[in-house]
Amino acid sequence: MQELRQRIVLTETEEMAAQPVSVLITGANRGLGLEMVKQMVEGPRPVTKLFACCRDPDGPRVEALQTLAKKNPNIISVVRLDATDLCSIKLCAQQVGSVVGTGGLNLLINNAGVMAKGTVQEASPEDMQHTFNTNVMGPMNMIKEFLPHLRDAVKASGMPGMSISKAAVVNISSLLGSMEALKQSYAFCPVVSYRISKAGLNMLTVCAAEELKKDDILFSLLHPGWVRTDMGGEEADIDARESVQGMLSVMASLTEKQNGAFLDYKGQSIPW
């Protein structure tokens, strides 16, 4: 009986430790980003501070996010951020730093992304450049500018190992960025610019995981599944609620063993 009680206490402690204190989500005004905000603040163990970032906080496509923020004014801060603009990222990092202070930022979720349709023969240089700037350069600059806040979170945590409650970067990738899985899906979904950008994001993430493992900052890639969003379309397999529930569960289970891992929303490994 005593052993059972110890296991229960240990499990509860691990679950609490897996809950991030401060979180930043890019592309938080719609789709998966908006659902992440909703579930994080309405879940059984809500975060204490959530920075919900989008390009135009006062725009017509941000009403749902602003409604959530008004209901949770002490938790949600809607912050202007254009992931393709380094100046915007720097300003956002300054704003976040002024709020979190020496406690740092525990979890950065690079969710913002764009998809341009087209095959190798159809894709334009402009499509490729814009997609790469958003899906690869954006996350890279976010990592660089928020690194001081992630390092502060490591210092403030006092915990061993790696987890999202200590300091972590989760990049939302896609099965379409998998080279090994390409033959099964290319015919009905070529989207060359998007595929190349997600493959680039994957490499960026594993490079960062290797380079910054000495800092105890966890890096991971998550494929949300084929989701019924503006990007995924109405014929997709699952809705945003199911996808985000799965991804948040996977995030909570991440340790140093998954540093640099490429996983789906069910926690299963995806081939590179």
From TrEMBL:
Protein name: C-factor
InterPro entries noted in UniProt: Fungal_SecMetab_SDRs, NAD(P)-bd_dom_sf, SDR_fam
One matching Pfam family: adh_short
Any GO molecular function: oxidoreductase activity
GO cellular component, as recorded: cytoplasm
Family listed: Belongs to the short-chain dehydrogenases/reductases (SDR) family.
Source organism: Perca flavescens (American yellow perch)
